[in-house]
Amino acid sequence: MTGVQFIDVTDSEAIFDDNQWDAVILVTHDLGAVAQEELAMLASHGAQVDARVGRSTTLLFAPGLAGGRLIVTPVADCDSDIQDVRGYSDAARQGIKVAFDAGARRPLLIVTPSTQARYSQSMGVAALGSAQALWQSLERREALGEIDNISQIGLLVDDKAGELLSAIEAGKHLARDLCGTEPERMSAPAFAQYCVDGLKGLGLTMSVIEDRDVLERDYPLLSAVGRASFAVSRHQPRVVKLEYKAEGPIERSYFFAGKGVVYDTGGADLKVGGAMAGMSRDKGGAAAVAGLMKTLALLKPKGVRVVAELGLVRNSIGSEAFVTDEIITSHAGVRVRIGNTDAEGRLVLADLLSHLRLKAQDAVAPQLFSVATLTGHVVRAYGGYTAVVENAVAREQKVGDSLQAISEAWGEPIEVSRMRRDDYQKIVDPSGAADVLSSNNAPSSVTARGHQYPAAFLLKASGLEAHGLSSDTPLAYTHVDIAGSATEGDPLYGTPTAAPLVSLCQLIRP
Predict the structure, then answer these.
(1) Phi/psi class of residue 279: alpha, beta or left (left: φ > 0; alpha: ψ in -120 to 50)?
(2) What span, in angstroms and rounded, lies between the C-alpha atoms of 365 and 397?
(3) Residue 408: which residues within 8 A CB-CB, separation 6 or more?
(4) Which pLDDT score is estimated for 114?
(5) Active-site option among 241, 245, 271, 398
(6) What SS3 class is residue 56?
(7) Which of 416, 419, 354 is nearest to 392 (CA)?
(8) Three-state SS string across 200-249, please?
(9) Could you report the per-residue pLDDT of 246-257, keeping only the tens digit for each?
(10) The whole model's pTM is what?
């Protein structure tokens, strides 16, 4: 299953087509702005009979319309200064749930456009919101077999939107499966296999590193995190390498490191007091990057090359576990003193970024990214939002500002944070024995600048620090912390969002 498919519908007569559609979902900020005369009349009449119509999601009996069902779902507070395009997603989610509960399986979605610039992508946001509401977990699907669900949604549009949104949803669906599945079903080897299977036949270059000798040689920090997991074959680490390269001249290059900690016990610095629950979701960064690669492979944007490395590892506790105070030399040759084994994600990312750094040095117009559920501090600072922290090169290129503008339009809001000189002071090894200290020994959520200073560590431990503005080969690097945005609803077991897949996709597409 690859997620909901969106089908473009350009003829408004489709609202009467019982053979193709079995319900009409009308998402609107104003009943008076509905362009389709028949729908406007039905909604207006319904509002005279039931005051809830236009104020809350309602199902109207509509003889003559497809399926005889009209679901009117309003966008709340559209004119409010604090509302954003996510209001359209909220409305569409409510509408699709009502349609599903009413028995519809092939609904036609109609979004009344707003003239306000902040709602420019309201159709796409509404469509993706409806698909998000329909997702069901992989464990459930595999246990119960095929589930009767909505697999196609029609979009009444003037332009071609279905191909883009279907590709985005296919990527998001893969990412949700990878992120949201329990740690045995989606162990490191299983994640790698599910990823390869989900991307097969799409023209991507793919490889999986599983040999212990190779991992320990080329990914020493990652291998330290997984040291206690090597003894259990089904828990052994993997690195998945993916590449998309457009036909013809390459104008821009993108490199992504995805954190895939398939389960985080905290290691020797064990998570206690119930803090381990939900740690199967610590692979959201790798999941989002894998989903992004699927979307790009389907869309085939021109002029770009996209390279990704996913570090898949279980941070296990055991006699072989790495411990605080160890000094481990990274792939970039930087000696790292371990400050806390529960700050393992940055170790995984540092080795991945070091490999990507070598490729980026010779690439055309390169930009590097790390995507990770990295810190509790980002949740403390920004709640359920993604944060980006840039190096000076990326800031000069306005990577964060561009991502933020895209994310606002597509209902996937991003906060732009800032790295300071203080962040480098936090990673100094007081003993002088190591080049860098990975972390302090307190939770990031109670550490000042707890989500900013890891970016300084990543720059130094990966060798990217040498590629600043004044270097011969400056490299733009942006760290993306999705600890607050990878899951919605229940903080432990809610629905994975695949954030920031949509924003990154729109950044990359020319």
Answers:
(1) alpha
(2) 11
(3) 84, 85, 118
(4) 92
(5) 271
(6) strand
(7) 419
(8) CCCCCEEEEECCHHHHHHHCHHHHHHCHHHCCCHHHCCEEEEEEEECCCC
(9) 999 999 999 999
(10) 0.97
Asked if 368 and 464 count as a contact pair (C-beta separation under 8 A), the reply is yes
| pLDDT for res 1 | 56
Give tens-digit pLDDT for 353-388.
999 999 999 999 999 999 999 999 999 999 999 999
Amino acid of residue 95: G
Low-confidence ranges of the chain (pLDDT < 50): none
Cα dist from 397 to 180, 254, 366, 413, 428, whole Å: 34, 14, 11, 20, 28
Residue by residue, DSSP assigns 119-179 as GTTHHHHHHHHHHHHH---HHHHHHH-S-----EEEEE-SS--HHHHHHHHHHHHHHHHHH
10 Å CB burial of residue 168 (0-12, 13-18, 19+) is: buried
- Written as six digits, the tokens of 84 are 């954003």
End-to-end Cα spacing for the chain: 29
Give pLDDT tens digits for 262-295: 999 999 999 999 999 999 999 999 999 999 999 9
CB 357 within 8 A of CB 448: no
Query: Would the CA dihedral through 342, 347, 348, 353 be positive or negative?
Result: positive
Distances (CA, A) of 499 to 288, 444, 487: 6, 21, 8
Residue 289 burial (C-beta neighbours within 10 Å; 0-12, 13-18, 19+): buried
Does 271 qualify as catalytic in the annotation? yes
Nearest to 428 by CA among 327, 303, 292, 337: 337
Residue type, 224: A
Neighbours of 16 (CB within 10 A): 13
Structure tokens at 111: 């979004």
CA 240 to chain CA mean position, Å: 17
Task: Evaluate the CA torsion angle 281, 286, 288, 290 in order and state its sign.
Answer: negative
Kindly give, in sequence order, each residue whose CB lies less than 8 Å from that of residue 488, ignoring residues fewer than 6 positions away: 384, 494, 495, 497
Active site residue 305: no
Catalytic site residue from 176, 259, 346, 395: 346
* Residue showing tokens 């006699």: 319
| 25 alpha carbon, distance to own chain's centre | 27
> What's residue 252's pLDDT?
98
| 366-372 β-sheet, strand order | 205-209, 238-245, 304-315, 252-264, 366-372, 476-481, 386-390, 414-416
Q: Which amino acid is at 70?
A: L
Rounded CA separation 396/367 (Å): 12
